[in-house]
Amino acid sequence: MSMNRRDFLKVAAGTSGGLMLSLNLTACAGTPTGYSEETGSWTADAWLELTPDNQVFFTLARVEMGQGTYTGLTTLIGEELGVAPERIQVRFAPVGKEYINPAIKLQMTGGSTSVATSWQPLRVAGASAREMLVGAAARIWAVSAADCKVDDGQVRHPNGSDALKFGQLVELAAKESVPDDPALTPRDQWKYIGKSRGRLDALAKSTGTAEYGIDVELPGMVYAVVTRPPRYGATVASFDASEALGMPGVLDVFEIDRGVALVADKYWRARKAQRALKVEWNTEDALSASNASVMAFYRKSADEDPGVNEREEGDIGEAFESASRVVEASYEQPYLAHATMEPMNATALYHGDRMEIWAPTQAPDLGRIAVARVTDLSPDEVDIHTTFLGGGFGRRLTQDFIGEAAEVAYKVNKPVKLIWSREEDTRHDLYRPAMLHRMKASISGDQVTGWHHQIVGPQILDWYVRNAAPAQYPWAPKFLYDTLGKAGLMGEGLMTPKDTSAIEGAVEYPYQVANLEVRHTHCDPGVPITWWRSVGYSHNAFAVETFMDELAHETGQDPFEFRRNLLQHEPRHLAVLERAAELGGWGTPLAEGRARGIAVHRSFGTYVAQVVEASIENGAIRIHRVACAVDCGPVVNPDIVRDQIESGVIFGLTAALYGNITLENGEVKESNFHDYQMLRNHQRPDVEVAIIDSNEAPTGVGEPGVPPVIPALGNALFALTGKRQRTLPLTA
């Protein structure tokens, strides 16, 4: 390059976007990659775009449902690129193979995997773009790139005074060779990672400008509601819409796959007219289960089938034969709803040869499959526009609400917004499965010598693979969808990942016991289920950590010291256990009428221990304080970690105190927050979170706060009353 710095600056100063328009550096590199002649913008990779007017756009491949990906993942890009995260504009990703979650093999947000799976690729993306920008500036100045510095969206000359903005460098940077192994910023030089900074979506959410699915508005939009059968598996026998069709604003009433759809010009007109519909249901194949029949089925299954051996160490039979005493207990947990604050909804627009969907979905690629199933469109003819999510908790991994909106829009040929009522959201949820746990331990002296855990209940993949398998093969013709789903089930562990939803948190039993056996008796009573915040860890932690407390009591040991002695070979478990005990004042005097309970659990690679302080006041359980310690590897934003652990505590306590879906002859009895309660603000305990400094690989925090708090509360109630509760929800 023959132009010196002074000549370059003259050219740049004399034109609009001078660098991009005035220089032709064909000798410096090959054809630009990702550079647009029309816009002057450089798309450095699937995540990052820089424009000549100095804007930076980041494409967020994981949805934002309150868990902090919008801020956390943007921080990773900003750190390596050298731009303050608040200067980066975030876009939600379209469906694309570049955005597949490598931990799940689908474009899906769940399993507390967002930071873990994005930590390396996003940092590499930012660092690569930074090195290419620095390389472009160094060529202009004819200096060593190693002597140039990046400072908040600009490359600074070695002299310390001259600088070029990223926008001035985008065309030249696009012609640089992509570095094979860009240098990542060392931990001791981080400016943004590990720092408590405000959430990037806070302003939009607090001013009402953040667009959730339920906020989407399109010109000429109509509204749809769906009347679904009261029992899962029932179908429409007949319906009478004559009265509804005569009501103001009603445009059409027709049958769809999941019930009867009613379309009106306004939402409340649709909802009012829905009450006038008369639908007869065919219940021949409908669910007839009750809570009692489900547990009876589980007990019978457990008696007849010891289940698949998921983990075995030592000789459990010998341990029980030689034990001085054997302790047994059974634990039962009910079905749980998700109760997201934003009910299910989606907006669909059919163009004749394509369909557009706007939806708060955790799995946009599965949304395409849901649309393809109810139309003649192929998945690549469906565009999914992801919005903010008003809570997910696993419910929005299943795309039934998108399929309904698409089926209605396909028929009415207008933009359609479908909204579920709170009652519909509760009664037509897919639930956290009810589970049964049979525990047995052998004791010699004051030592636990054997541990047996039989888990009884269904697997979630059985319900989920129907659409998940086709999403992995979007090119497949639709007549193969069900075959792919069946093949996925048959090939579990080979074609598809092993389904650990029933056993996770049990097979990773961390305590040092010589003889160990964990088994799963797979039985499914037919109640629709899906992922629920912390999934199998939520029910296994309750069984494991409550039974551990029972064993501590049986051997006359302090529950904290009992666990501590059995975790000497698990340093990360031990560290959070000891920190939570210290933070919670374990062993120190308490106010009269109060007691503490403790639990520790590892889920999704993150270690959490909690101490709950509780009492019973006026015949009700009151939780005063929860002390938490968490080890999730390097922390991107400490405030978000604390927020999410606290959120998990509130979510878990809600389930512990109120969570219970009641089935009677296949019908869900709960309907709204009056009978499926949430923890109210005045019931909220003080929650204190201590973060363990760690150099281990980063893990997630959206779910791990949930599992230990339920047994910790139960253990506190035992310490308070002397009565052990083995069935949820807990009572006073």
Structure description:
Keywords: Signal. Residues 1-29 form the signal peptide. Pfam families: MoCoBD_1, MoCoBD_2. GO terms for molecular function: oxidoreductase activity. With 732 residues, the chain is α+β, with helices and mostly antiparallel strands. The chain contains 20 helices and 27 strands. The strands form 7 sheets. A 7-stranded mixed beta sheet has the order 10-11-8-18-15-16-17, sandwiched between helices. A 5-stranded mixed beta sheet has the order 13-21-20-19-14, sandwiched between helices. The protein has a 4-stranded mixed beta sheet with strand order 1-2-3-4. Strand 15 and strand 16 form a beta hairpin.
Write the layout of secondary structure elements.
Elements: H1 5-13, H2 18-22, E1 42-43, E2 48-50, E3 56-60, H3 69-81, E4 88-92, H4 114-141, E5 149-150, E6 154-156, E7 163-165, H5 166-174, H6 202-207, E8 222-227, E9 235-240, H7 242-245, E10 250-256, E11 259-264, H8 267-274, E12 278-282, H9 291-304, E13 308-313, H10 316-322, E14 325-333, E15 345-350, E16 355-359, H11 364-374, E17 382-386, H12 400-412, E18 416-419, H13 422-427, E19 435-444, E20 447-457, H14 461-472, H15 481-490, E21 515-522, H16 535-554, H17 559-566, H18 571-583, E22 594-603, E23 606-617, E24 620-631, H19 638-658, E25 663-664, E26 667-668, E27 686-691, H20 709-721
Parallel strand pairs: 3-4, 8-18, 16-17, 20-21, 24-27
Antiparallel strand pairs: 1-2, 2-3, 5-6, 6-7, 8-11, 9-12, 10-11, 13-21, 14-19, 15-16, 15-18, 19-20, 22-23, 23-24, 25-26
GO molecular function: oxidoreductase activity
InterPro entries: Ald_Oxase/Xan_DH_a/b (IPR000674), AldOxase/xan_DH_MoCoBD1 (IPR008274), AldOxase/xan_DH_MoCoBD2 (IPR046867), AldOxase/xan_DH_Mopterin-bd_sf (IPR037165), N-heterocyclic_Hydroxylase (IPR052516), OxRdtase_Mopterin-bd_su_IorB (IPR012368), TAT_signal (IPR006311)
Keywords: Signal
